[in-house]
Amino acid sequence: QKVTVEVLDHLEHLALVDFRDSEGVERLQKAIQFADQLQEVNTDGVEPMDTVLEDRCLYLREDDVTEGNCTKELLKNAREKVEEYFVAPPGNIPLPKLEERDTFLQGS
Amino acid sequence: ALIGGLCFQVSAALKEGRVTPTELCRRCLSLIKSTKFLNAYITVAEEAALKQAEESEERYRRGQPLGVLDGIPVAVKDNFNTAGIETTCASNMLKGYISPYNATVVQKLMDQGAVLLGKTNLDEFAMGSGSTDGVFGPVRNPWSYSRQYKEKSVPKSHSEDEESNWVITGGSSGGSAAAVSSFTCFAALGSDTGGSTRNPAAHCGVVGLKPTYGLISRHGLIPLVNSMDVPGILTRCVDDAAVVLGSLAGHDPKDSTTIQDGFKPFELPNLTDVSKLLIGIPKEYHAPGLSSEILALWSKAADLFKNAGAKVIEVSLPHTRYSIVCYHVLCAAEVASNMARFDGLEYGHRSDVNKSTESMYAATRREGFNDVVRGRILSGNYFLLKQNYENYFIKAQKVRRLIANDFVKVFRSGVDILLTPTTLSDAVPYMEFIKEDNRTRSTQDDILTQAANMAGLPAVNVPTALSERGLPVGLQFIGRSFQEKQLLTVAKWFEKQVKFPMIQLEVVKRHHHGVVQHQKSASVS
Fold first, then answer.
1. CB contact at 8 A, B2 and B525
2. Cβ B375–A31 below 8 Å, yes or no?
3. Which domains does chain B have, with CATH numbers?
4. Span B50-104, pLDDT tens digits
5. What is the ipTM of this complex?
6. A-chain residues within 8 Å CB-CB of B336?
7. By three-state DSSP, how is residue B249 classified?
8. Domain that holds residue A13
9. How far apart are the C-alpha atoms of B103 and B190, rounded to whole Å?
10. Helix, strand or coil for residue B103?
11. B487 closest CA partner among B190, B293, B207
12. pTM above 0.90?
């Protein structure tokens, strides 16, 4: 089954990356096809494995402040900043819908 | 001649004053310049390195070196954060990003006095098996310029040969492997998520160690797959790998996935009696596409152990062939999550698009990531969709348990070490490699290395012999969790038996007509 344009559009929204061209879409189709081989494996009664270290207790350190105060250094790498703030463009503006966006998927 | 030497030899020479850290550093820097065509380095931190070398020299003068690694030039893959030095992950997304901190493993090396020469090239964000897909271009395998390879290649016009015939390093830690292989440093850090340290190690004829997951801190290693990534170690001999491991391993409060058990650095014994060893040969590693050459070498290696008195048996890891599919899904899913941090706000590339946060993020990521990275992000998001989560992500996690259990069963039955090939063939020419896309290549090339990452086990590539084409072929040993000492002891024994030849690097200086040869000498002069 081919992935629908709705799903492709949804993915572009979720991932905030673009498919760019038919090759990108084809790449996804092949990836799904490849992943479908997993269905051949019988996993009845098998628990999913999150980590190979599941038999150990996760390390929790003491809630002590041991470092910080590096505001200047951290701000150095940001392009847009004002005083000690990172500056973001206005939020609450959703990505334009498929018909209005400049995306390869338009017209699919 | 020292340049081809090994850590402990150089360390002795430094202690005795036969060479100084600054001389060593300068020689390496000069060699980096003359091997620039390999494209192994993205950034060379010349001034900082010389300063570190001077500090090391002062310590040796006072008779107070910090350890074996004091004054030893090393290189680090460009996906490790290095304070004050650009860290790019070979991506436009991080071009110009100057790390504000050192990754724990980098800090540990520097605390031991190692001299950081620079950052090595890789596939973009460590996604790939060729070190061909980064924005700074592909890395060339130093063996492409070896006498051994040239003697075996079909002669065309001499200059045409070099330009079109060069072979890849493998990946994604190709830069690090090439750097070690071409003598520009004595040890290098790579990373290993699906084989990214062992694969280029095999193609470049160096030792590539993937430690047990949880042994070495990942703090500061820009993550690909959090549940599988490990820092990898590339050196010219097994003893060196043990030395570097000794300086890196141990619990890090900044990485909660490092185990709390105490770690004691060890020296490798010189094994003489292998009769108590039980070596397992997993039959599923006779994978489709395995070259007859490597198959023969694998068989010869098994015989080597047998003839020396070890017990060698065939074992089965039935889910091996699903490892690569499982990896494909889990990797994409974790990548989708890990790459979400790149939005241009706090670091890295930021687009000029400023209409809204979302459109800025989208444009930034559109401009910053290459096809491979975008492809994995999109696939990952697909597998994580509500309607797909159970059938892909959870399913893959279940298959992961089956793969890990395969190993548990085999080791429980008494097997000490598994012996397998590392790659399906020797290094292919770049022109041939790029005919297939990144995902296809990764699928093919990771098949023998990936399962060890799935199960979190330690594994090491040991250079074994030269192929018919005069290129390195390595074999892989996989050990039990946290049993690096046993793993490396066996690897060292094997290394001694096979006596892998040293590269006879021929560096042709383009503006001279001579051929400058660099040959390894085991002795110090």
1. yes
2. yes
3. 2-151+162-322+397-511 (3.90.1300.10)
4. 999 999 999 999 999 999 999 999 999 999 999 999 999 999 999 999 999 999 9
5. 0.94
6. 15
7. strand
8. 1-40
9. 13
10. coil
11. B207
12. yes
